[in-house]
């Protein structure tokens, strides 16, 4: 089955082979990379080796791949670095899982190592801060949009830099196209955020993200977790990390970090409060035996892990891929939670799908496994409307790719718009999008349908 087969309206799910989702890669796949051909399993599975050998430069890519890095590939990689809003940072684990015999079509390469040939012009309505996180930030490092929930960003550092990152305005370091104000751990600013939480008793839920909470030291992990749990009205905290997906070796061999997470989890239980982890698998190719072993360890500690994926063209926008991902996650005790429509951020137009694709994919996936292990497909509305189910729009002009939404409790009285990628529209619609006056009239007309 092809991983690049796109979803069309009315498409029915194909049944994947019954036990395929239980098969996890467990070979020395990294030894196929010339630069790591002699690396032993014990070395590769050590979290310190993974950090030390992270790939961060095109010259490293060329050196590690050797003859696998063809002149054509090298030229395309170099061109990508002149366009992308994100620098390179990839763990050896994820780098080695890429199919280097066909990197152009590989779903992992697409997510972490941009090629110049893949980019498309940004949508006319893109925004660096598409979700309005900075607008809804009452104090540094906090976004407070929902009445009882906040997003806390204690660092902007990640173990990998994803090409599709929604926070590329602050994460991934400055590039040739973007200057950024990144930051690392700062306890003084954390304490200012905690003070805001103390003054707002309606807040019960804190998402600790960034950046990536994987990059917090054990001491920092405990300090943040226990400080939040000591606030009387905070009932739930969630550590958000892509780490389990792209760097399971940390769970397997960094005992200090895992024990710190365990301690916070047990601290929360004593207070009758929830401490969970949210991770981010987007492709079945990210899941190996190491993923399962990492989850076995967290599961044995009683730590609940949920998954939030991003819908990406050429990565997971086919029925068979999404069904397999969903069932594999459930099998290793990761609960599928959300699949996001891709945010309208710069440098990501080639990743985005239409809203119709998201709707049809959810129809196809629902019923393939238990309901509590079926992800909800959502659109996080541009402008800060928050997450809405993909089929809960007020109006959708499929021909011109314009959807109009309300967020009645988050921001009552406001209308929000999300736009399909122009290159996926009809030729006639693409011509209309080429004329600014016509575009303004189309958007105005769409909003008038629900005003």
Whole-number total of structural domains: 1
Unreliable stretches covering 5 or more consecutive residues = 1-5
The largest sheet has its strands arranged as 1-2-3-4-5-6-7-8-9
Computed Rg: 22 Å
Helix content class? 25-40%
Number of strands: 12
Biggest beta sheet attributes: 9 strands, mixed
The named CATH superfamily: Aldolase class I
Span from first to last CA? Answer: 44 Å
Order of helices and strands: HHHHHHEEHEHEHHHEHEHEHEEEEEHH
Account of the protein in words:
By secondary structure, this protein is an alpha/beta fold. The chain has one domain (18-353): TIM Barrel (Alpha-Beta Barrel), CATH 3.20.20.70. The protein has 16 helices and twelve strands. It has helices at residues 41-44, 47-52, 58-65, 71-81, 92-97, 107-112, 187-198, 218-229, 243-246, 249-253, 255-270, 289-300, 319-331, 355-365, 427-433, 436-448; strands at residues 142-144, 149-152, 205-208, 236-240, 274-279, 305-310, 334-340, 376-381, 386-389, 395-397, 402-406, 415-419. The strands form two sheets. Strands 1-2-3-4-5-6-7-8-9 form a nine-stranded mixed beta sheet. A three-stranded antiparallel beta sheet has the order 10-11-12, covered by helices on one side.
What attributes characterize this protein structure?
single chain; 451 residues; alpha/beta; TIM Barrel; nine-stranded mixed β-sheet; 16 helices; globular; disordered N terminus
């Amino acid at each position: 089955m092809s991983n690049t087969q796109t979803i069309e309206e009315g498409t029915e799910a194909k049944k994947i082979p019954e036990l395929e989702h239980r098969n996890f890669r467990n070979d020395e796949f990294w030894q196929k990379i010339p630069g790591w051909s002699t690396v032993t399993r014990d070395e590769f599975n050590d979290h310190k080796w993974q950090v030390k050998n992270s790939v961060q430069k095109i010259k490293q890519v060329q050196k590690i791949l050797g003859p696998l890095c063809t002149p054509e590939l090298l030229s395309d990689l170099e061109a990508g670095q002149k366009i992308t809003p994100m620098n390179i940072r990839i763990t050896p684990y994820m780098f080695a899982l890429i199919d280097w015999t066909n990197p152009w079509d590989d779903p992992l390469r697409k997510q972490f190592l941009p090629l110049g040939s893949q980019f498309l012009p940004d949508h006319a309505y893109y925004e660096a801060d598409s979700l309005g996180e900075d607008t809804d930030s009452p104090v540094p490092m906090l976004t407070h949009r929902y009445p009882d929930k906040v997003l806390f960003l204690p660092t902007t550092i990640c173990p990998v830099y994803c090409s599709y990152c929604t926070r590329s305005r602050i994460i991934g370091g400055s590039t040739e196209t973007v200057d950024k104000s990144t930051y690392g751990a700062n306890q003084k600013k954390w304490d200012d955020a905690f003070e805001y939480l103390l003054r707002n008793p309606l807040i019960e839920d804190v998402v600790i993200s960034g950046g990536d909470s994987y990059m917090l030291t054990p001491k920092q992990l405990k300090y943040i977790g226990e400080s939040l749990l000591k606030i009387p009205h905070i009932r739930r905290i969630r550590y958000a990390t892509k780490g389990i997906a792209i760097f399971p070796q940390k769970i397997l061999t960094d005992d200090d970090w895992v024990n710190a997470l365990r301690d916070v989890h047990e601290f929360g239980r004593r207070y009758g409060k929830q401490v969970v982890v949210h991770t981010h698998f987007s492709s079945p190719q990210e899941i190996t035996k190491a993923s399962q072993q990492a989850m076995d360890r967290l599961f044995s500690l009683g730590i609940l892990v949920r998954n939030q994926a991003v819908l990406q063209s050429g990565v997971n926008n086919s029925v068979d891929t999404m069904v397999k991902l969903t069932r594999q996650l459930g099998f290793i005790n990761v609960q599928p939670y959300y699949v996001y429509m891709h945010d309208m951020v710069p440098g990501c137009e080639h990743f985005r799908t239409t809203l119709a694709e998201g709707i049809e994919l959810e129809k196809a996936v629902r019923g393939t496994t238990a309901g509590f292990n079926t992800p909800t497909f959502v659109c996080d509305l541009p402008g800060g409307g928050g997450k809405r189910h993909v089929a809960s729009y007020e109006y959708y002009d499929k021909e011109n790719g314009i959807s109009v939404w309300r967020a009645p409790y988050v921001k009552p009285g406001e209308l929000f718009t999300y736009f399909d990628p122009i290159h996926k529209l009809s030729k006639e619609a693409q011509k209309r999008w080429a004329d600014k006056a016509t575009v303004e009239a189309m958007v105005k007309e769409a909003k008038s349908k629900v005003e």
